[in-house]
Task: inverse folding
């Protein structure tokens, strides 16, 4: 027998999730899979316009990997259909449509990053333009006839916007239906997503029924907070830990999270056992324990998932050199210049430590900039570059400025 | 100069209409048409699933014919795209999808009937599946992004249904957009429709703008009441006067309308001049005038539009023979039978005077059936058929039953 007993599978699947709708159908699907020795098809959608994966994505990817370990089939659906449309209203200039080539490159990049979590050889990657792209207006009308406007407007964000009289374009009602068609085309048994995807996943269930298929079971997972501890983790908010971030960067970022997130990160972003998690929870409740010890362990656990164990140890050492002994980290980037003198604001900008002269002045004003361990107090300061100068902005941004002859 | 002065055209166009949105744009379009000697493109949509035209349709068709006489281009858009989809929810079994062939046959039938009103040689007939049928899902998303859900739900019937929590399927929001795309594809300058089409025509205006075109001017016309005087004229309510009805049938149907509709029918369904209309209105207000004289004139006017003048006179004479002199009309159909005896209920059914045995009994119960001018009082009556028997149901349904040997 290929598959574990249903109760054992179920116990693992239910760990760490928010919704499982409906449980009895999942049990029936698992039973039938075991009886016929057929894996379940487990779908996860991914957005090709945001190809950089972070720990937020890892929460669902880890659940998908779990299904793989249980013997089921993982299907990554790259949503290139909508990616290639971009923002059709043309109002959002920051979301230009992707070319077919770009969606393929981003899809492959997503896939190769996800492979740090998934079993690469047993993951299917598909592009939904393959079926959505062949649908005609008449197919769309038929699809759209299967769902009412009122139910669509029950979706949380639609409801809020509709009540607040904020515009919702008609095409926005088509996107959940398009995503639902993915489940029809793939005959998905299970679909995974963050809790913010709950509505869309349920539409998939309904539309599968309308197309005469057995409806998928939906499983949602918590949304991980970013390193700021407030908002959901996202690249655009710069509060993320990328799963391809180098070990030292991961270490520093994880050490910066608020203490009250430690447990949640252990739960959602690592593979520690339930017993370990309980022990960690107990330690955190103990005032005698310094939370930073647990944070160090968290950082090591996460780095070990995406790099080698050795890398975690090295990252911790590098971190200690900078933060414990005020040393400059080993991998500090080098900025080379031909000039003998440079205004410190220009230097900060050109070396990429700040985004603009204004930000440079602000950072200096806040006392966040130092040159060779001496705080800069005057934003008009001109630096003589002789040999090597180490500049630091904030706690973790360093650059070594080096004069080159030429 | 090909075109009449703008003020003259405008005066004619504005006659008998409800909405003209906006008038200043129509004036500009007429001016430019006259200056460049280019006709305006005037669009009228028609539904190929209801190919039988009646006086209700004639109201907009007459306005379209007027544009033709002013030198403009008439475009009949056969909505075969939606016709071929039918009722996509599959809930309405009475609206099966039409085949391409059926839409073409119905379109041609519509065209040939409409040619009793329009100048056939100067009417373009187009099928909207030609452009809507080539649209992809991605084209539909782009189209749907140009309109908000809230504005769509402002449409009268949507608003009522939404508030009453009656289901509106998402595809229903796509139909006004599809119709609007017709205006884009045809670059319509003007679109005509009944007042119930006002919203859809306005969507056409908006969508043309979104696609970078000069928006169409919309003109709506009143909805004609049916011969019952209550509901809008429609074949399914059996309160219609078909524009291909034979003269005698037209005459009888028109004579059956309530007196308070006489003026409205003159206004919307004939070509009498404004002066004549004023005179008719005055006569109707005069208690000394018998309204049936005006109704006779109305019937003659309408018949003359769709048949020969001679036909109107003959229809009136036939009508008089039946109704004034209690004669049997000359064109009463003949029903031939081999039998010597027949139950009167069966005879009524087989001769097509009633739809069922039940209706036969009901009509007899109401005293509406007579045989050779003698009222039938017993619904179990068996008729001996010897030579010719004339049967009458209600006021206008006759049949001559004739025994044939064999």
Result:
């Amino acid at each position: 027998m290929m598959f574990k007993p249903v109760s054992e599978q179920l116990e693992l699947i239910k760990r760490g999730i928010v919704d499982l709708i409906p449980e009895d159908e999942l049990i029936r699907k698992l039973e039938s899979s075991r009886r016929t020795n057929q894996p379940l098809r487990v779908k996860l959608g991914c957005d090709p316009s945001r190809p950089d994966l972070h720990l937020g994505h890892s929460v669902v990817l880890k659940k998908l990997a779990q299904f793989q370990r249980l013997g089921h089939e993982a299907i990554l659906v790259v949503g290139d259909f909508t990616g290639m449309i971009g923002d059709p209203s043309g109002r959002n200039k920051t979301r230009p449509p992707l070319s077919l080539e770009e969606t393929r490159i981003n899809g492959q990049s997503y896939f190769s990053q996800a492979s740090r979590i998934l079993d690469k050889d047993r993951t299917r990657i598909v592009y939904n333009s393959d079926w959505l792209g062949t649908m005609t207006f008449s197919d769309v009308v038929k699809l759209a006839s299967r769902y009412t406007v009122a139910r669509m407007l029950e979706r949380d964000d639609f409801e809020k916007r509709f009540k607040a009289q904020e515009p919702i374009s008609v095409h926005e009602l088509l996107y959940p239906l398009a995503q639902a068609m993915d489940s029809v085309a793939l005959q998905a048994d299970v679909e995974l997503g963050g809790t913010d995807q709950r509505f869309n996943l349920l539409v998939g269930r309904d539309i599968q029924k309308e197309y005469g298929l057995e409806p998928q079971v939906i499983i949602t997972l918590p949304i991980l907070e970013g390193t700021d501890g407030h908002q959901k983790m996202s690249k655009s908010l710069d509060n993320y830990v990328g799963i391809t971030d180098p070990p030292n960067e991961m270490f520093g970022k994880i050490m910066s999270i608020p203490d009250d997130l430690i447990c949640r990160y252990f739960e959602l972003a690592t593979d520690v056992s339930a017993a370990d998690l309980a022990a960690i929870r107990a330690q955190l409740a103990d005032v005698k324990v310094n939370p930073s010890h647990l944070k160090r362990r968290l950082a090591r656990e996460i780095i070990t998932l995406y790099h080698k164990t050795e890398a975690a140890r090295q990252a911790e050492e590098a971190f200690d050199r900078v933060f414990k002994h005020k040393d400059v980290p080993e991998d500090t980037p080098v900025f080379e210049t031909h000039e003998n003198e440079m205004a410190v604001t220009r230097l900060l900008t050109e070396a990429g430590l700040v985004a603009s002269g204004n930000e440079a002045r602000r950072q200096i004003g806040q006392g966040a900039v130092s040159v060779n361990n001496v705080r800069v107090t005057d934003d008009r300061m001109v630096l003589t570059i002789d040999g090597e100068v180490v500049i630091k902005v904030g706690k973790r941004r360093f650059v070594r400025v080096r004069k080159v002859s030429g």
In short: Residues 348 and 354 of chain A are 6 Å apart (CA to CA).
